[in-house]
Structure formats: structure tokens, C-alpha cells
Fold this sequence. Notes:
124 residues; mainly alpha; extended
Amino acid sequence: MKLPKVTIVLVSASLLFVLWEQTREQPEPVDASRFTNLAANPVERSVAVDWVITQIPALCEDAAGQSRGSEAHSECVSKSEARTSSCRRALYDRFPSVIASDDVFRDLSITAMNCLVPRSGVVE
């Protein structure tokens, strides 16, 4: 049986991409202090959204009122992680690609938190 040349080229290209992806430098994790002076140091929307998504465990801890490792917390985290792609799409459609003000960052953060970990009827 003869393999088509296109198949060999596509598989080779896929392997090269995987190798390249694994050898490139990983970006350093973003710290919350990165968002303190957005007027002087704007941030890309994707960086802000990624940071909010990394906060899911803390958001679920607050929403569930239970510590990490509890069943309610684990369920909240898994549901939130399942919503990340749809929330990310909604945020990308609604907010500018560069976040240059505290107000826009606040709105993006609150919108993302409400999408990832919805809380209805909570009054504090």
C-alpha cells in the first residue's frame, strides 16, 4: 500500500509544531500587581482574561463557602472550567483588545467572574 505524500507532509508538519511548542519559552505567570497602573502600562485582553481564569479556585472557594478539596468546591471548579471557552468568547466580543484603564479592567473582571462562577440570589 502506498501512502499519499500529502499525509506524510501533514503528519511531519504536526510533529514539528508539537516539538516547537514544547521547546519554546513558557511565559511567566502574571501577578495581580501587573494590573495596578494600566494607564501607563496597558495589558492585552488575553492576559487579563487568562489571569481571571487562573482565579477560578479562589472564586469557587468564595462562592461555595467551603475550602479547597470539598465536594462543593470541586464541583464548582469543574463547572467553571467547562464554561471557560464560552466565557472567553463573550469577553473577547465585548471588550477591547488592549485594556488601558482601571474601569475597563474592573468591568472585564466582574463580567468574567459572573460568567465563570455565576451566583444568583446572593445578598451580603
